[in-house]
Amino acid sequence: MPDLLDALVVDGERPVLNELDFLLRRDPRIGEVATTTSGAGALRLLKRQRPDVVFLDIVMPGLSGLDLAHVLARFEEAPKIVFVTAHDGHAVDAFELNAVDYLLKPVREERLHEAIRRVVDARTDNGDTGDDETIPVERGGVTRFVQRSDVRYVEAQGDYARLHTGVGSHLIRVPLSTLEDEWDEAGFVRIHRSLLVSTNHLLEVRNDSGRCIVVVDLGGGMTATLRVARRHTRELRDLLVRHVHRRHRAAST
Predict the structure, then answer these.
(1) Which domains does the chain have, with CATH numbers?
(2) Of the candidates 58, 46, 9, which has an alpha carbon nearest to the alpha carbon of residue 30?
(3) How far, in Å, CA of 141 to CA of 213, rounded?
(4) What confidence tens digit (pLDDT) does each residue in 77-122 have?
C-alpha cells in the first residue's frame, strides 16, 4: 500500500480552512492533516513537521502564500504545493514555483481529489529518470495544470499544439517541433509531421494494409488509433526496441 500523504493547510479564512481539513481527512490517500491561518504559523509548524504536500492560500496577511512557497522551494526535501485561492490571476506565478495544482475557491471535493491524485503522481514520477513537467493550460478564462505524464499524444495545429490526455484535450501556444525536442527524453516520438505520441501509453504497433498503425491508451478502456508516416516508421521501431531494452536493464538491477 502506498505511503499516506501528510498534509499542511494554510489559509487565512477559518471556514475555508475547516472545510479543507474535513475534506482531506475523508480522502484515503491522506494521513495526518495540520492546519494554520498564517504563513508565520506555517513556518512554526514546519520547524517540527515535514508534510508531503502543502495546500496554500495566496492572499494572506503578512507572509503571502507566494512568499511561503519561495521558502518551501529551498527545503532540501521540498513538499509538493497546491495553491488554493479565490484569485485566478496568480496562475503563472504558481507555475513558475512548480505548483502541482491551482484550485479556485470554493473547492469542490472531486476537484480536490484530482489535486491529490496529481500529488501522488508527482511523487511517483520523481523516482523515475527525469522529473515530470507541469504545463499551464487555459480554458474559458481559467488556468489549470496538466502533467506531462498524463499526455497520451500531441497534435500540431499551426503554431499551437493540442495535448490529448485521458480526460480531454488542451490547446497550448507551443510548436510541435519544440515539444519534440524538449520531450524526447520523456519518451515522446514523432510518428507524423503533425503527431507526437508517448511511448509510455502505447498499447499496440501493427501493420494495417502495409501501413504502420499505433494504438494509444486513453484510459478508461478508450483508445486512439493513429497512422505512422512511412518516413517515421523505422525511427519508431528503433525507439521502441531501445525502450524495451532499458526496461529490461532496469528490472534486472
Answers:
(1) 5-127 (3.40.50.2300), 145-252 (2.40.50.1020)
(2) 9
(3) 37
(4) 899 999 998 876 666 577 667 788 888 899 999 999 989 988 988 7
